[in-house]
Design goal:
Rossmann fold; 3-stranded parallel sheet; globular
């Protein structure tokens, strides 16, 4: 975004999405969520809070000032990771008691809130579904495939693509 910093119509704002924000904006790009799986055992409540309140507050702001919103979703917002549609008895990915459920359930709630507001109140904007995201400020040991692979490559370590006969992750080219 550095090319936008000199533009008088652009202002990058950092705020806590769990708190209401009262500003005038034209667009909101919301992708807020603690995502690294290695942190879930320690941050389940903040992760859920960021997902749910982190959707209510940007939507409320977008409605209040008639701004467009770009909402980031992931495959968890669209159901199961391996079986579509996801079934309740799939306790690996639909469990309300698993450590990971703070992220999966939160993402599904985010998707539902975005689309319900879009349908009910004509919320302007769009939802995008990203997979295997990576950014320069990501912690190198966040436990996700892209960062793991980059760290392993930088250390000249072997990058495992298959373990015990099953594929660990898949990248679309």
């Amino acid at each position: 975004m550095e090319h936008l910093f000199g533009n008088l119509r652009f202002e990058l704002m950092h705020s806590d999405v769990t708190l209401p924000l009262h500003v005038g904006v034209d667009e909101i790009h919301n992708s807020a969520c603690p995502a690294p799986p290695v942190h879930y055992p320690h941050d389940t409540v903040p992760t859920t809070k960021a997902r749910v309140l982190g959707m209510f507050n940007p939507v409320a702001l977008a409605k209040r000032v008639e701004a467009k919103i770009l909402q980031a979703l992931t495959r968890e917002a669209c159901g199961g990771r391996y079986v579509q549609p996801q079934e309740e008895r799939d306790w690996r990915h639909a469990s309300p008691v698993s450590v990971r459920s703070c992220y999966d359930a939160g993402k599904r709630c985010t998707g539902m809130l975005y689309w319900d507001n879009h349908r009910q109140d004509n919320l302007l904007g769009c939802a995008v579904r990203s997979l295997k995201g990576y950014g320069l400020m990501m912690h190198p040991h966040d436990g996700r495939p892209v960062t793991n692979s980059i760290v392993q490559a930088r250390r000249s370590e072997r990058i495992p693509l298959v373990e015990e006969g099953t594929q660990m992750w898949r990248f679309a080219l």
